[in-house]
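Quick one: EGFL6 protein from Campylorhamphus procurvoides, structure tokens please.
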Amino acid sequence: ATCGHGCKYGECMGPNKCKCFPGFTGKTCNQDLNECGLKPRPCEHRCMNTHGSYKCYCLNGYMLMPDGRCASSRTCAMVNCQYGCEEVKGEVQCLCPSGGLQLGPNGRTCIDIDECSSGKALCSYNRRCVNTFGSYYCKCQLGYELKHVSGHYDCVDVNECVTNTHTCNLHAECLNTEGSFKCKCKQGYRGTGFDCA
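--- reply ---
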């Protein structure tokens, strides 16, 4: 087969009949084919024609996938959340694993909510709140200790007079109170109970 005019970007298949390489057109395959004008369009967002080919581009916030589509570049892997995230309607949102944490100003890391100072914590009267990262717990108040009483744990008053953990004067009597103790100077002595003369 001979092609009198030649086939610039193709092969001669028969008398003056050219078969063009992909990306070229015309009787002698000398014209660049504008793929961007084809239907369906080869690119989802932006298309740029090049000599014998074309290039796809994506709008800001998207990245080019191997099939020419544009996928949101704001995927969980790219946002780099501290504790994982979820994708809702194309938007990525970082998550915090507990109700005691909230997203920090950067939207990626979780910061602790101090339930004790915010008043969200619920502790009974004889327990005090201790904040932890992401939560809190209720600890026995000073002067109370945790004991197993009638089938459950409860904070029970410590009798400092019996356990000898009081700081009363040698010449004073120790009087146990709920959560604490008092000191009273013995007869014949005068003072605060911590000092007796």
